[in-house]
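Re: weekly structure request thread

Next one in the queue (265 aa):
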Amino acid sequence: MFDNKKFYFLSGVPRSGNTLLGTILNQNKNISVTSNSIVSEMLYRVDLCKNEERSLNFLDKKSHYDVCKNIIPNYYKNWDSKIIIDRTPWGTPDNLNLLKKYCTNEIKIIVLLRPIEEVLASFIKWSQENPGNFLDRYTSIEEKCDSLIQYHGMVHQSLGSAHNLLKEENKKYALFVTYNELISDAQGVFQKIYKFLNIRPYKHNFQKLQQFSANGIVYDDKIHGNNLHKVKEDGIKKTTYCPEDYIPKRILEKYSTFNFWQTQI
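Done, posted below.
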């Protein structure tokens, strides 16, 4: 266990290589990239306690601040890595404000992005190949896509996070990486990440990969559906397919505005 950990953040759009990135970074024993994390929600809820009547009746600002400031370090105090990269949509306005108030070191957020057509098609392809998943509760392809994009949907918050971090005043906190960059030039991407985080470079193995784990824990994909976080163990490869093979063109066009980031990075 290390006393002086650094805490950085990963806020990628789902199906954009988050698990792949984490699997590779976790080859470096000094780094632990987390799974989809609950830490931001914990911090958000505790921070709200200051607005309850009992708090306002006898407001101890210093004690409340101390608790909030220590939520992230305490959650990861038994993780052995020096550097923790917590994965959640930390770039949303609420979450970024929490980091500004309570993060114990400089804020740095890695943002993974992928065209929305590919993101949605990847979800639909996965759901068809792995029946019994969370999307099966919806009948049509359009309903499934809507559930991902709508407010609080699995894709919605991460896109909101990216949108907020693309604001001029927030760009300083973020490193934007596209899925295509990660697949086609992994070595270059990891060099950028190490430079962004100011970490000594590490020689990663991009050809022989293991399934994602962090702090000795692995995903239980029965919760959302089998193989949602499965990594190709024989190296970095892009599965080539046409989004229109899985989603009608009119539905893809419906969501085209969510590619706002393509002209801004």
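DSSP finds twelve helices and seven strands in the chain. The first helix runs from residue 18 to 25.
Next request, please.
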